[in-house]
């Protein structure tokens, strides 16, 4: 059996997850399949006229990326290449394949398994619909699109084509979180028998173990990459630390804040005057380096207001890092799945502060091995590869 795993790139959240699935299939299913990873280096990118590279959001509800795709181009050499495979696993393939090409592939009868890392394949173009729920039926008069880039009619057509793609019985929908799968079912994109939750694959680094410390502090990791994207709520995380210092001044000496990302200096400017110990790690692209940071932390604070099944939770849990997250989406699902972590009562600085104080109060000196084992077992590449073979075959 020949399988192609497709993603626009091997980097970025979706690209990393896609490449890990490719590696899992290649390593553990070699007797059952031949697998290739296909990105832009293999087939090139979609023409900018068909899918403009800039975000098409108007930022009225959310400023999360909005991908315009006019579904007007079919590159027949690309279709011919992909039809050499028995099955294809499509991850985030914006700018790699057009919506029209996806429809052409669906019509061919080839087995197609979509792995959704956000909402894009069930909307007219937005990656996270925020408070908008029009995608449940039809993306008419989209409130989030910049009509200077993509007209309202083109949004509606893009959404209709996606629903047409998933109507074919040879098209399967998967996602690493039940949250996304259930949203797809609520939208009636696919029936229950063609939708499945399959977690991300991750193999922990065998030579990396949590660091034992005697400083008496609770170490919390914050990813400081974007103040701009509303969905990620970095400012809310900072405001939570500020509120914690205000309501319980003693907490400042009990916390060490680890920052990873390009905007660490902006975070330091807000938190350092309060007296927090801050450890700056900067932007990290090397996986082993970020694992070293995980191994030095007790908690990971990720305050996104909407998310799927983030790689950072999957990875950090393998090294005993417990999540502190917001309610109502895949991050809360992660906490409930492994029965470890803190979930804010709401998206307020007071709720974040309370969760930070709870984390300090419940912290133990030892890493919870059951939590680590359960998380690691769930994401074992061998297990995940078997689950993917069950839907690709």
From TrEMBL:
Gene3D superfamilies: Glycogen Phosphorylase B. InterPro entries: Glyco_trans_1. Residues 215-363 form the Glycosyl transferase family domain. Pfam families: Glycos_transf_1. One of its GO terms (molecular function) is glycosyltransferase activity. This is Glycosyl transferase family 1 domain-containing protein. It comes from Alteromonas halophila.
